[in-house]
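Batch job 17 of 40 flagged for manual review because the log was empty.
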Amino acid sequence: MAFEPFAIWITGLPASGKSSIARSLAAQLAARGVQPVVLESDELRRILTPHPTYDPSEREQFYNAMISMGALLMRHRVPVIFDATANRRAWRQRARREIPNFIEVYVECPLEICMARDPKGIYRHGRKSSGTVPGLHEPYEEPGDPEVVVHSAREDPEAAAARIVRILNDRGFVE
């Protein structure tokens, strides 16, 4: 199967549904013969910042490293799915500038629903501390003009992933 390498950044509040969409998207692409690398922030933190503080300089360093990894993979013609909150718009804009064939997917989900889902206990823990949880303690800067907006409170991950695949197809990135 022929394809043009691409990068998709799936962003949204913690527990908005980013990882579910990323898994479904990777599976749908694999069914088309395209094997993307998913750069999942929680997994990368275990390597890059094994004892994270989530302070501003650490986050800056973490997202810069993540963007560099994605750019390196793209130079080797490996499609990339970023599964990361990246609560600062500047990080996603940097990725857009540095990585060709970039698509931003905003997973819109009300904070109350994210807090109710909370599969990793991020909000539960955050409410007990003065932490740095995006949307709770830290601002989450919504994308200015994402290529895709997913309303995860009413759209399931498989349908959202199928919409993303259609966009990739329309742009000639996959068949």
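Reviewer: the log was empty due to a logging misconfiguration, but the result itself is present. The CA atoms of residues 60 and 91 lie 8 Å apart. Unflagging and moving on to job 18.
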